[in-house]
Amino acid sequence: MPRIIGFYTMSHRAKIMLAAIIVMVLLTSSIVYVQAYHRLKPVYEVPTDKKIVALTFDISWGNQTPMPVIEILKQNNLKCTFFLSGPWVKQYPEIAQRIKKDGHEIGSHGYRHINLSNLSKSEIKDEIEKAHKNIKEVTGVDAKLIRTPNGDFNDQVIEAIHESNYEAIQWTTDSLDWMNPGIDTIIERVSKKSSSGRYYPYACQRYL
Known about the structure:
Helix content is 43%, strand content 12%. It has helices spanning 12-37, 66-75, 86-91, 93-101, 121-139, 155-163, 183-192; strands spanning 46-47, 56-59, 81-84, 105-108, 145-146, 167-168, 173-174, 198-199, 203-204.
């Protein structure tokens, strides 16, 4: 029959080694927790006592979907935030100008649609600056908000964004509209994930 060895029956050396292992595990866990807790993050939501949801759109390619959406927004007197990529603005300036004309807020969706966390800080700033220049030239807007491509970020990305005089904005509710689940599914998903007492920067249809 196997013997069960308890803590008090272990040798003094074994006790010290076990205690050291436990301390190392606790220290490692604490470091990971602190790093996660203090990680730089985008703005996800803003507290408010109003029953309000912020609807936003990202546009990086194509010209067929944006205009019907813009017309629907106008018919319902809705103002939204559009995050536009630098190359797209240059390719479809008339749509970008219409977005501005209708009174929607314009932000940046970066330049290349790549994960910024794979770039150096100087390269991230260059991506932001090139997109900013295009948006300014086409719409006259000095964008101050940015949604990173794919929602990708790390501390360096957020630092670069802030150093470029931008604020990073993230979604709290992703409608997953790009999967084409159907209108009812999109509405149900966004409605269920919205709650009173919070302003949601992104209960959104992410891509147009």
